Here is the input.
Amino acid sequence: MARILVIDDEPDIRMATVMALQMGGHTVIEAESGMSAMRVLKEQVARNTVVDLIVCDVMMPGMTGHDVCQLVRLDPSLNEIPFIFLSAKREADERLEGIEAGADDYVGKPFALQELLIRVNSVLAKNKQMEIPKRISADPMTQLSLAQCIDMIVRHNLSGKLTALLKGTVSGTIFFEGGHAVHAKLEDKIGEAAVRSILASQLLMYSFEAYEVSDQITMAMDISRIIKRPS
Here is the structure.
C-alpha cells in the first residue's frame, strides 16, 4: 500500500496511529518531533524516494505541525506529499489555519482509529486517481535577496556553499563555515576580492547548499517566517 510518515510527540498516540495504519496494510515511518521528521524527509530526498503521505500532530514543542507543513510545501522536492493534521483542537479557526498551512485534511483528537484509516485512504485515493495540478511553489530562495540570504547565513552561523549566477553566465561561489565566509572564487578573483565582485555584479540567480540537514531546516524555517511576515 502506501508509505506514511507519522509525526507525534506523544508516544501513546503515535503508537496507536501507527498500529491503525499498519492494520490497514500501510508501511509506517515514525518521528517524535518536527525536526526529526524533516531530517527523515531530507534523507529520503537524498535517496530519491519520499513517503506517500504525512500524518502530523499540530501541537508539538519546538517545531509545530504547522511549521512542518509549511516547510514541506515550500520545498519543491516534497511539496506534492499529501498532509493530514491531527489535533485536539476542533474549533473552525484551528481547522482553517491547518488548511491554509497546506494540509489536505484535518482529523480532531480523540479519533476512532477506523475513522483515521478511512480519511487516510480517502486522501491517498484522491491524490492517486485525480489529475491534480502541481502545487505552485517556487524555490523559496528566490523570494529572498542575496543580501538577505547572506544575513541569514551569518545570523544562524550556517555552513555551506553559496553559488551565484551573474550576468554573462559567470558563476561565483562563496564558502561559509559557521556563518563566516572562508573562501570565495569568481573567475580569476579569490577571497575578499571575489566576494566584493559577486555582491557588486548583476545577479541572475543564486542558491545556497547547507552542509548539514539541521542548517537546511533552520534556513527553511527562517524563510517561511519572512514570507509570512506582513509587508
About this structure: The CA atoms of residues 108 and 140 lie 31 Å apart. The chain has two domains: 3-129, 140-228. The two ends are 44 Å apart (CA to CA).
